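User: Some background: our group keeps a shared notebook of sequences we're curious about, and every so often someone picks one and asks for a predicted structure to add to the entry. Today it's my turn. The entry only has the sequence so far, pasted here. Could you supply the structure so I can complete it?
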Amino acid sequence: MSDTFNALVVDNVDGTYSAFFKDLSVPDLPDESVLVDVSYSTLNYKDGLAVTGKGKIVRKFPMVCGIDLAGTVVDSNDDRYSAGDKVLVNGWGLSETHWGGYAQKQRVNADFITKVPEPFSLQDTMAIGTAGYTSMLCVLALEDAGITPDQGDIVVTGAAGGVGSVAIALLAKLGYRVVASSGRASESDYLMGLGAAEVIGRDVLDRDARPMEKGRWAGGVDSVGSKTLATMLAETKEEGAVAACGLAGGTDLPTTVMPFILRGVKLLGVNSVTCLSARRDQAWARLAQDLDMEKLNAMTTVEPMSNVPTLAEDILKGQVRGRIVIDVNA
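Assistant: Of course. Here's the predicted structure to add to the notebook entry:
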């Protein structure tokens, strides 16, 4: 057996940002308590930003990218985990300040780890990945805000992406009428297949809205930000709520206080990166209960790690549909 393994590394030397594959050995890995044989990672929008350097994601160099990983414990200095345990990690600064999942082995802080819940396989957990887990956090936030299916439509933006795809599948199964917002008209059949009752174009929301528009939505899940989120808020009905988790359209939010103080609209920020372990466990338990596995499989493709640099460019261009699992050993 070779003592080395493959990893996708980014570095920034004298202002030149580059991503490259490199052979590493276990002594090269961070000094963390749990050694994992990694089977799968994922591709998320944040991964695209990190690998290409088009977003200020990576804060320490050199960095092994990949904000997710799933694999089998090889060795552990923490009593919570033993050799043979199936585990996963979402977020926690992987690919930012901690080495991530685009490697065939990784040492991980034990506090970052979640045991793979039944009935999921390692591949299943990465088909869900940070995008799907974030979707579940958004659904939980809407439920906590008292948004129920009988109150009206829920709009999901960035609908053909990872967060949007899983959100549609979850909300539809829970009985909500889901309206999918997408810039890709060609994906309408795909979105309807996931459970969307209606598909609208991106331009319906990505516009300069008035401070208050006619109330249309009981709630929403937004991964876009900027004008799209501002329009959603202006169109949300009394006591409605929008869960916001992304910024694919921009970091700005050109809105006013009027939806909040005149309609009682709630803007629910969803942070999946450093979410507390108890909330993570709740989200994964609900995914096991509420996510239709046939729909998950329908939205998922598996790609070798060698394709990540190209896929990273594609996801930033909005050319990736659903979920991509990265087989780090292929």
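Suggested note for the entry: The longest strand covers residues 4-13. The chain has two domains: 4-116+299-327, 130-269.
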